Fold:
Amino acid sequence: MRFMLIFTISILCLVTGNAQINESSSLPEIEFSQLSQRDPNPLGEKALAIHSEQWKHGETEHFIYHFVHTYVATPISIEAEFHYRVVARELERDQPATDTKSHIYIFEQPQDWQQFQMFGQLEKWTGGIHSAGSLFIVRNPAYKFTDNSLGHEIVHLVLHRFYPDGIPCWLDEGLAQYVSKGAHASYQRARGYIAKPHSPAIAAQDFIPLPTLVAMTHPPSDRVETFYDESERLVRFLVLTDKASFLAVLDALGRHQPFDTALLRTYAGKFPNPTALEEKFRDYASKDFGTSLQQVDD
Ligand SMILES: [Zn+2]
Structure:
């Protein structure tokens, strides 16, 4: 609880004290040749080759944007920098060792997007494509960018900068959901809406056993929703149990240590063995299932 309070206050400070959150100023356009960095990702080149005349470019402190209309790119640039700060604050660190910026490509025409989709794998949750630290999205009301989906993708980009060698899928997706839901609710609150993060509970019969969950290298197509929800709950559970231990586990998993080794070593006083962890987490994951608490901000 104490952590959640600090988390909430820190985000509100970020929102209210941050000059980037100024929706009246547009993202300045920059000539491609004048951008501070190139994207080494070959998918970037493929994206910019689709109706190459349409693309404009811009950049902020941590991101480079490729877009068609400034009014579309501006709010995305605000959300991107906002989430960068939230993630850095959450992970309790400032900058990764390098100053590499992440590239975000914003398509507008569904047919352009269809053409591009052949090159990459859609993230089932958001409809975006996240590849090797670059993000490709389409501005399309059919996708869920009105909720925390854009934030979710941006958390992936930032995590990739801190852990360029990758982290396990459950941790990547769980953190992306956990951080972006908290940030989205704070973002809404800062604009006068009543909002709090929504963390769906898992029905007991849907629960994916921990050894299975942590071994998955991509969301299982028959249980996508459970995978995202349970991963988010696992991150939330570990953070609430002990934030410092969670950060130590994140670093250990970023160095590709096995889950059991990393977790049991770090949370030794809390979970003496994998069964103890699984039992406590199973209880936590199903807490409030089917109650009104669960639908609180649906
Ligand atoms: Zn994701």
The two ends are 22 Å apart (CA to CA). Residues 169-190 form the longest helix (22 residues).
